[in-house]
Amino acid sequence: MNVLVVGGAGYIGSHMCKCLSEAGHAVVVLDNLATGHRAAVQWGELVEASLGDVAAVGDTLRRHRIDVVMHFAASSLVGESMSDPYKYYANNVCATLALLQAMREAGVSQFVFSSTAAVFGEPQAELIDETHPCQPINPYGNSKLAVERMLDDAARAYGLRATALRYFNAAGACDSGLIGESHEPESHLIPRLLRRAAGEALDVQIFGTDYPTRDGTCVRDYVHVCDLADAHLLALEYSRAQPGFHTFNLGNGTGFTVLEVLAAAQSVVGRPLDIPRGPRRAGDPATLVASSRKARERLGWRPRRADIRRIVADAWAWHQKPAF
Ligand SMILES: NC(=O)c1ccc[n+]([C@@H]2O[C@H](COP(=O)([O-])OP(=O)(O)OC[C@H]3O[C@@H](n4cnc5c(N)ncnc54)[C@H](O)[C@@H]3O)[C@@H](O)[C@H]2O)c1
Fold this sequence. Notes:
Structural class: alpha/beta
Strand order of the largest sheet: 3-2-1-4-5-6-11
Bound molecules: nicotinamide-adenine-dinucleotide
Number of domains: 2
CATH topology of the largest domain: Rossmann fold
Helix content: 25-40%
CATH architecture of the largest domain: 3-Layer(aba) Sandwich
Number of helices: 10
Strand content: 15-25%
Mean pLDDT: 96
Radius of gyration: 19 Å
Low-confidence stretches: none
C-alpha cells in the first residue's frame, strides 16, 4: 500500500515509517518539522508542509496515489495546552479536519489516528479499557477526543474507515541506532532520566512518594515504540476488513512505578543516579494502566518488548549517541 505518514519526522511517526517500509509498504512523510527532525525521515520522501495546508495535502495524496493516512502530527504538551489551548484546537482539531476533508476530496478512505490515554481523564479503574468514560481534564485530551468524535461521525456519514489508537506512554527506540526520541523540551520520564545520565544538565525529580501504590510513587504504563508500530500495522489490516470507527487502548498491561523505572535505568546505565524526591505534582493520578485486551483479541497484538529493562536499554542505546 501507499501510506502517507503525517508527522513522520517525529518520534513515533519515524518508527512507523521504518516498520511500514520493512513490511513492504511505500511511505511518504508529510511534516512541517515543528517538533520533528529532517534526519528522522529515512524511509520515503519528505513533503515539508502543514497538515492544515489543504492544497499541499491534496496534491500529495493524488501524486503518490495514497491508500491510507496515518496521522501522528500533533501538539502534545499537556502543560502548554493549559496555557495556550487555542494552539491545541488549531493544530490538533482544525488542521486534522482540513486533512480529513482533503482526504475525502481525494477519495482516500482509510485513516489511523494517534490518540492518547489523556482522553480518559481521571482513572476510575485499575485497568483502563475502551469502555472507560472519556472525560479529559486538559485541552490536549479534549483536542484528541474531539478528533475521535469527528472520526466516528465521518465513519457513519462518509464511510471513512478510521482507527484511533490510544497510547499510554511510548518509550524505547528501534535497535538500528538510526532514530530515537529527541523531544525539545522533553517531558517524559525515561528520556529525562537517561539524558541526565548521559551528562545533560536536566532537572529531574520524583514527584510524590506518598501515593497509594506499592512503593509510593506513580504507576505508569510504558509501551515500546516498535510494539506501537506493530499495532498500527495490525490496525491497518483490521480496518480494511471491518468498516467503521474503532478505538484500541495500547499499553503493556503492566504498570511500573517511577522507582522501578529508576531502578531499571540505574541497572542499564550501570551506576546509581541521584534523583531528588519532591512533592506531588497537581493533576497526576496515582495509577494509569491500560487494558489492551481488545487490541490483543481483535488485532492479535502482542507487545514483544514489554520488559521495562529492555525498553530502557533500547532508549539508552539511543541517548548515548543520538543521531539528531
Ligand atoms: N510520545 C508519547 O508517549 C505519546 C503518548 C500518547 C499519544 N501520543 C501521540 O502520538 C503522536 C506522536 O507523538 P510523538 O511523541 O512522536 O510526537 P513528536 O512531536 O515527536 O512528533 C509529532 C510530529 O508531528 C509534526 N507536526 C506537528 N504539527 C504539525 C503540523 N501542523 N503539520 C505537519 N506536521 C506537524 C512534528 O513536526 C513532529 O514531527 C502525537 O499525536 C501524540 O499526541 C504520544
